[in-house]
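Intended use. Records like the one below are meant for learning the mapping from a protein sequence to its folded structure. Do not use them to infer anything beyond what is encoded.
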Amino acid sequence: MCKEGRVEEASVLFGKMEEDGLVPSAVTYNILIDGHCNKGDLGRAFGYREEMLRKGIMPTVSTYNLLIHELFMECRVAEADDMVKEMGEKGMSPDAVTYNILINGYCRSGNAKKAFNLHDEMLTKGIQPTRVTYTSLIYVLSKRNRMKEADDLFVKIKHRGVLPDVIMFNALIDGHCANGNMERALLLLKEMDRMKVPPDEVTYNTLMQGHCREGKVEEARGLLDEMKRRGIKPDHISYNTLISGYSRRGDMKDAFRVRDEMLRIGFNPTLLTYNALIQGDLECVTTHIASKNASANTLRYLSSAFGLKWKHPWPLKEKRQWAHLWDTVVPGLALTLLGLWHTINTIRAYYLSGSGNFMSRFWYPLKSPLSKLEHLELIFVLSFSVFAIFMQVLDFPLLHFSFKLDNFEHATMFFHLAIFAGFALSAELTHSSEILSGVCRILLASVFGQQLFLLHYHSTDHVGLEGHYHWLLQLIVFVSLVAALSTASSPTSFPAALVLSISVLFQGCWFMNMGFVLWVPRFVPVGCIVQLGDASRDNMHGAVTCATPEADLRARALAHLQFSWILAGILIFIGCICLKFARNFRARGRASEYEELHISGAEISVAMTGFKQVHP
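Structure written out for the chain above:
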């Protein structure tokens, strides 16, 4: 009954069984727990586990396996860990099934390190990993774009005598397709034939999506024909992939031919089918009309006449590209300007006050005849922060309310910056800056602390080259945090104040560098491509994917060189500024000494004259 989905009937029968005086065993309870887990009713499943304990029936390893598996399915990882601990407390040792459930659960949640630790634990305890174990590990490596490790593990598996199945091959093929390495993916298809592992529709759909992602729709069409020749029936995904590929390329005639083919073989087009057709057709129409210099009102009118939603003839993928470019370049420019302002003023203040009287500032006033411009820095920071928050919420330039977590994370960083700027501006306007200077310094440090915190957890979703750039960014932010805390505890420290200013400048330059390298195709390293519109897979983001491990290593080496070059350029600039101020203030110092000597000489002359008058 439970296997047929008739769980409620099975529960009723279980009740009658108890009424008749029959004592259920652990196996009976496991069947009911399994049925409710498959139904998604974890509460009832745990209820039966509690009933077992009340009746003195000891849950088995299978009982825990069923519950742990369902907890992972509902992403309740912490509770799954608690269940494993409970097993140990009751003297139960996890079996191969338990380890496979745990490894698969951690792989699905993206925790590759924990999954591989469990794999090592299996070997230590003498439990041999199975094909299911290795499939899960290859899956997480592929999703993390760690394709060299996935390939190496695949070779080890075969040497250990474990025969790969179609699911394992599909996981590996998906990783290579997502990384733009179609040559390796197609070689795996040939290897499946050599090993007598028949591919399925998932295999071909993955390869078709990889070709369409690169704009090679004809190759994808060839794979569809190959599927049919091999007796593999295409599904909705197969046809929708082709339709989407043709639509993105603007070949609407071929897209509609595929739609007609779907209808002929008995497939009803889905919502995804029509979305691809409408998007592609409307983009072709609006682009053609826009090329004739038609006004936006004309485009809106024609679109409404055909019952379609008008949008600017700016492809969605390019909008997303510019959205990501905005997220990095514009804040980077603001931080660069702010860092330059602080660096120059910090050095200037040091030479003006001297090493013994220097006092760092968390903002610098603008020397202007207009008193309203004195607080321009704080007004700029506050205004930009509020503006950036709205742009994140509206997902600029897409201009719609965004409910994506990464947008909220970015907005939160700007929100903390706005809190600091607003408080500092209020303290200045109320003439309380001296009393509240310590609070302002702590708030400034908290800005960098919050930025580092969010970047650290935000960057766990970024993989590949993008993840590496985010990791380098965290190093710079960490330096900013340490320097901010140092200036808060020791405001007279010139080195701490200068390092803080330089780190803000470095942040700005690195943000802009990231934007151009990761989101402008012409600046992408050789052997890598930008995944416009496809930068998100299973909540893991990789803007740039490299075709081979060698290309990935070259791209990371280039990132290290850029990091060093930018830092070197900033330090050279700082050195020139320091030398310029030193020369200017040395010249002023000599002039002051001359004036003092001149005045002193005049005073001596006057004194001597007076002396002569008194003593003729």
